[in-house]
Structure formats: C-alpha cells, structure tokens
C-alpha cells in the first residue's frame, strides 16, 4: 500500500510540474514571440487530458500576461540582471510562479515545489535554485503593489486617458480583472429558466440578468464540456454586451439581414435563435473564419436557416445580388480595447500603426455597406473598442459623408450616450466594453441632397 501511495504522489508532483511547463511555454510564446494567447492556449490545452490541469494552465497564463508589467518590476527590483533574451523561458516560468502566489493564491508550498520541478523539466536544472529563491522572496515580501497601467503601452494609455479622463483608472482596473462567464441560452432548444435548473443540478451557480432574456452569468467560469448540453447546442458562451446587439439591431420578423464580419457566428446565431424566419446572409473574408461560422451554426442546429459565404465585405460584387438588406450588422475589426480582460495580449501586440489601419478599414467598410442598406433600413455599427476614433468619431465622419443616414437614439441599456452612439465601458454591468451606433437610411435616399 505504501508503494502505491508514494507512486501516486510522485505522479501528482510530475503532473503539477508538467502543467507549469505548459503554462511557461504559452507565456513565453505570447510575451517574447508575439504569439496569440488564445491560439497558444488552444494548442497547449489540446494536449492536456486532466480538466483541473487545463484550468490551472489557463489561469496561470492569463494571470501572467495580465500582470506582466508588475512581474517585470519585481524581477528588476530583486535581480541585478533580470533574465534577458536567452533566458526568456526562465522569465516565463517565474511569471507562472508569481501568478500562482498572486493573484491565484495557491498554497505556496505546492506552487514553489511544482514550479522548481518545472525548471528541471524545461532543461534548466542549473537555475532551479534561482527559481526557488525568487518565489520564496515573492512569498515572503509580496510582489510590488499592483499597477494595472504598467501593462498598457504608453501611447495607448495616453489615448485612453484623453478619451476617458474621468474613467481611465476604472477602465484599466476593470481590464486587469478576470471576466465573468456569460451564457446565451438557445431558446429554440429550451427556456432560460429550464437551463438555469440544469445548471443548479450540475452544481453550478448563476445569476439571472433581468434585462437580457437569453442570458445567464456564472459565478465562476467553467470549461464548455462542464456546461449541460453545450455540445448539443443548448447554450453558447457570449458576453452580455454582445447579446445586446439583437436589441440594437431591432429587426422586423422575417427581415433580410446581412452580418458583414460574422465570424465566429455568435451574433448571427443569436438573431436566428430569436427569429428562425430571418433571411440572413453571414459573410467573412477568410475561409478558416467562415468554417468557424459553419461549425457554430451546425452545433446550434440553425445551419439550414442561413446562407454563409467566404467574401470580402469591401467588395459587394462578390456577394450581393442587388436586393437591398433591411438590416446590416457591421461588427467591425477593431483594437479590442474593450475586451482586454478576455484578451490581455492585446496590450502586447497592438501598435499605433495598427490602430491607424483599423480606423481606415472601418471607414471603408461603412462606406461599402451603406450602399446595400434598403431605404428605411438600418446599419448597426458595433465594435469591442473603447477608443473614440474607432467609435463616435468614426460615426460622425460617416454621417458627414452620408447625409442619407441619421443616427437613431438608443437607451441606457447600451451604455452611456457619446453623442454619436452609445458606449459601454469594461466591467459596467459585468459586461465587456462595447460600442453601438444604429444608423437608419432615409426612406427616399434619392431625394437627399
């Protein structure tokens, strides 16, 4: 019996170390090689069978990327020569170790031992003592005080403060916090109340928002395979701010609708779940992205109700048959500054020239899609950005170029009125940062001078 027990414990230690190795490799790829956190995690988690280890790796990676500015400050304070380029994997492993101590608050003994073992598995046995010493110092002295702004590039932080001088500190703090997990119940497969009961039976706690009829919000995120009926299409993961798009678009039953940048298909799916009679065309520019739309529709059982095409929204001749749409949704490519809490690597990868290019692309998309909106129809411009030049300034410029469109008023459900659309800031109502502008085309555009 003793031999079996010891073997089990050795296996547990090895498994814990392997999880730290996996997290360190993800962190290294994101911080030092410009890779996508979401993409690296997807690859890493595919090789891990244990659900607990998967959750641990994901939590370490997210925390390390969110707090990389703070952890870099700690190494600079405690080491005369912090790890350089050749020791990038060591830096990544230390960040994974810091994340376990703060903010994850794992038991220090287990976190230290497993992370030191991970140094050996990474081929850095000669640095295991250094890892042990630095993590023990972090345990004893604590990490430097949190400064969420340290993870923001200076140029972007300056723009944020210029756009939202009274709210910038709150935005930075909310963006550094873990995001809740919002669910959208597929009303074609059951009611929200019935699904709430299934969650309770599965031991999961959820809030029931009053003003989002398909939404539930979990007290703690879980893997999708822990959600009852996820594989059968009973529920999807979608933030409350994104679910609000249905209300902003406000299409008539059976309307002809275009989703112009549709991948991965969540907003189109919500439209079809609410109204199976919609005549919906979903397009996106890249075939792999369109494949994700098709996978989403197939899982939810709505593939037969929509047309999906690989096409460039900037070139209507590729996909438009000449019949105007009653409603067009442009969830435009953007800086993603409203979802930093879900994609913290945005702060690592975004550059000023990227934002300039996005603003130009957004304007081009708005101009191209204006022509396919029917007289009296609606163009909903949406982004997950919180920057004015992508949002309210973009809308003001569009209205100046297109006098046959007017901005329709939205209510407080969509956030604060900017004068040219509505902006929800990160964390407000527990939701992501999101922008909405409902633009209606005149009933007789030919008469507009």
Walk me through the structure.
The chain is of the alpha/beta class. It folds into three domains: 2-146, N-utilizing Substance Protein B Homolog, Chain A, CATH 1.10.940.10; 181-237, Sun protein, domain 3 (Alpha-Beta Plaits), CATH 3.30.70; 240-447, Rossmann fold (3-Layer(aba) Sandwich). Helices cover 45% and strands 14% of the residues. The protein is built from 17 helices and 13 strands. Strands 5, 6, 7, 8, 9, 10, 11, 12 and 13 form a nine-stranded mixed sheet that branches. Strands 2-3-1-4 form a four-stranded antiparallel sheet, covered by helices on one side. Strand 11 (416-417) and strand 12 (422-424) form a beta hairpin. Helix 1 crosses helix 6 (108-121), helix 5 runs parallel beside helix 7 (128-141) and helix 6 runs antiparallel to helix 7. The N and C termini lie far apart (89 Å). The model is unreliable at 1-13 (pLDDT under 50).
- Number of DSSP E strands: 13
Q: What is the general shape?
A: globular
Bin the helical content: 40-55%
Low-confidence stretches: 1-13
- Supply the number of helical segments: 17
Give the biggest beta sheet.
9 strands, mixed
Order of helices and strands: HHHHHHHHHEHEEEHHEHEHEEHHEHEEEE
Q: What percentage of amino acids are in beta strands?
A: 5-15%
Mean pLDDT: 93
- Give the class from helix and strand content and strand pairing: alpha/beta
């Amino acid at each position: 019996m003793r031999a079996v027990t010891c073997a089990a414990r050795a296996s547990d230690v090895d498994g814990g170390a392997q999880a730290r190795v996996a997290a360190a490799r993800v962190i290294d790829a994101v911080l030092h090689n410009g890779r996508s956190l979401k993409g690296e995690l997807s690859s890493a988690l595919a090789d891990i069978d244990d659900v607990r280890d998967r959750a641990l790796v994901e939590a370490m990676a997210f925390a390390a990327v969110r707090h990389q500015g703070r952890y870099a400050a700690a190494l600079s304070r405690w080491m005369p020569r912090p790890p350089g380029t050749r020791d990038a994997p060591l830096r990544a492993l230390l960040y994974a170790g810091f994340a376990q101590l703060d903010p994850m608050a794992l038991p220090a003994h287990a976190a230290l031992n497993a992370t030191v073992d991970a140094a050996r598995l990474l081929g850095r046995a000669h640095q295991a003592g250094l890892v042990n010493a630095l993590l023990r110092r972090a345990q004893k002295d604590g990490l430097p005080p949190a400064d969420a702004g340290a993870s923001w590039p200076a140029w972007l932080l300056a723009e944020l403060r210029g756009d939202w001088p009274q709210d910038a500190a709150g935005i930075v703090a909310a963006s550094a916090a873990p995001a809740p997990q919002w669910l959208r119940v597929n009303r074609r497969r059951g009611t929200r109340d019935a699904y709430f009961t299934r969650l309770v039976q599965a031991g999961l706690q959820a809030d029931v928002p009053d003003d989002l009829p398909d939404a539930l919000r979990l007290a703690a995120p879980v893997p999708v395979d822990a959600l009852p009926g996820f594989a059968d299409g009973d529920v999807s993961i979608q933030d409350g701010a994104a679910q609000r798009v249905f209300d902003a678009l406000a299409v008539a039953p059976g309307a002809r609708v275009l989703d112009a940048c549709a991948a991965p298909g969540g907003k189109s799916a919500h439209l079809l779940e609410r109204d199976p009679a919609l005549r919906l065309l979903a397009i996106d520019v890249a075939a792999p992205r369109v494949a994700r739309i098709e996978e989403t529709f197939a899982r939810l059982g709505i593939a037969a109700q929509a047309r999906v095409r690989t096409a460039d929204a900037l070139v209507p001749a590729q996909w438009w048959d000449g019949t105007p749409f009653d409603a067009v949704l442009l969830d435009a490519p953007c800086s993603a500054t409203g979802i930093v809490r879900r994609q913290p690597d945005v702060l690592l990868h975004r550059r000023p020239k990227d934002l300039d290019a996005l603003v130009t692309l957004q304007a081009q998309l708005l101009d191209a899609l204006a022509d396919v909106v029917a007289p009296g129809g609606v163009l909903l411009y949406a982004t997950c950005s919180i920057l004015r030049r992508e949002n309210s300034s973009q809308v003001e410029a569009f209205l100046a170029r297109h006098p046959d469109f007017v901005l329709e008023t939205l209510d407080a459900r969509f956030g604060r009125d900017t004068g040219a659309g509505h902006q929800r800031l990160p964390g407000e109502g527990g939701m992501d940062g999101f922008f909405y502008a409902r633009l209606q085309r005149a009933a007789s555009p030919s008469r507009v001078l």
